[in-house]
């Protein structure tokens, strides 16, 4: 039986023979920074020791050659735009254009280690999408640094390369800001600047980029509660629907401080400034504030990422990134809007208009030169319930609480049928896990797994294998999840048979 490699490489042949690993350790000849990073991941995810070695003693020899592919011809059947993560495995030799590509190849090799040793293969591979990520809501449910390390390792194991941290919302502001102690009281969990710097470095070693988000000008009730002067003279029509407004000096100063902090904390090109669901905000004020945020990010030499409604502010320019989230499949219809609580009735038309305008958001941003990051709620929102049962009865009870009741439940197999079609200016795709109902790391694991590997497969390899084949490969990864402290994964009957649990 072939090893359960996820995502499946684009072109792969198993040779049918295994290389014995002396003492169970994988010996790798390559740059020390690469070998050290792979050793960390292998120990965490697979319990496999990776040791540096010379070419004569190595189980795997890595050759990083910048002239291979990006500056030359792409191998047949692969996208030339993905050259920086491209690689070729030829039995015990890895050839890649960059260290990132070699790291991706070595994760495939780690997944190919079985009881008999390393099953050898030949593969020529590169991702179908450059940007492959996960949005993680740590504002509504705080994750410790150690828990976030486990999530980063999980992303690296599945060759995902972006972790977008939704750090702020109405419920909490999770990153400490200098001079703003009321934002992060000691009674709530928050990240120190040193914590965040540690996570950025931890992710970088695994070739994962952290994109931080401070969501503004809506979703800011935590900030307004901490510093009421930022309200100006506004009285929110509804609890939790306050906004940062361009005519309030205290709000503008705060937004500048927030953007300045984020831009100073990451050495990557992108900073996320939110921009979604500013329900009830004056459209002119919304547009002015979103443009202010984007201009501040660009002043730092970085590019803003924002949710799709920001296109309505005319805020996007070339090099910016729009993150789509509104899926026509999940847009609330008149019946659902009619069921809103009475106090929200005045916003029925606002909600309806938000979703009605959604089809224009992408074309407007693309026309302005922005790239598109696909995160439509179907299939990418993982805070929805499973339509298929769990083999563990207690999880079927759990699903009565866990997951957003406003989204239809979906079968895991149905997620795999989605295709992104032909999107101009496509940057990539990103799953999203919102934490409205999450109370623990086990809750997070139940919503995240086994669905994240399904989406990772889709982002890396546009070719679709039969669902039973993918399910069988994913089912072979439960020990990895347990090692990472994610043993609360959902025992989906579409993925697992009793003998695999």
How would you characterize the overall build of this protein?
The chain is of the alpha/beta class and 501 residues long. It has 17 helices and 16 strands. The strands form two sheets. Strands 1, 2, 3, 4, 5, 6, 7 and 8 form an eight-stranded mixed β-sheet that branches. It has an eight-stranded parallel β-barrel with strand order 9-10-11-12-13-14-15-16, surrounded by six helices. Helix 1 packs parallel to helix 2, helix 3 runs parallel beside helix 4 and helix 6 runs parallel beside helix 7. The chain starts with 10 loop residues before the first strand and ends in an 18-residue tail after the last helix. The relative contact order is 0.11. The model has no long low-confidence stretch (mean pLDDT 92).
Quick rundown:
With 501 residues, the chain is of the alpha/beta class. It is 32% helix and 17% strand.
Low-confidence runs: none
How large is the count of helical segments? 17
- As a percent range, the share of strand residues is 15-25%
Arithmetic mean of pLDDT: 92
Number of strands: 16
Q: What structural class results from the helix and strand content?
A: alpha/beta
> Which percent range fits the helix content?
25-40%
Largest sheet report: 8 strands, mixed
Overall shape: it is globular
How far the N terminus sits from the C terminus, by CA atoms, comes to 18 Å
Using only CA atoms, what is the Rg? 23 Å
What labels describe this entry?
alpha/beta; 8-stranded parallel beta barrel; 8-stranded mixed β-sheet; 501 residues
Protein topology:
Layout: E1 11-19, E2 26-29, H1 32-45, E3 50-52, E4 60-64, E5 87-90, E6 93-96, H2 99-111, E7 113-114, E8 117-125, E9 131-137, H3 145-157, E10 162-166, H4 193-205, E11 209-216, H5 221-226, H6 249-265, E12 270-274, H7 283-299, E13 303-307, E14 321-324, H8 334-338, H9 348-357, H10 361-367, E15 371-374, H11 377-380, H12 393-398, H13 412-415, E16 426-433, H14 441-448, H15 451-460, H16 467-475, H17 478-483
Parallel strand pairs: 2-3, 2-4, 4-6, 9-10, 9-16, 10-11, 11-12, 12-13, 13-14, 14-15, 15-16
Antiparallel strand pairs: 1-8, 5-6, 5-8, 7-8
Helix pairs in contact: 1-2, 3-4, 6-7
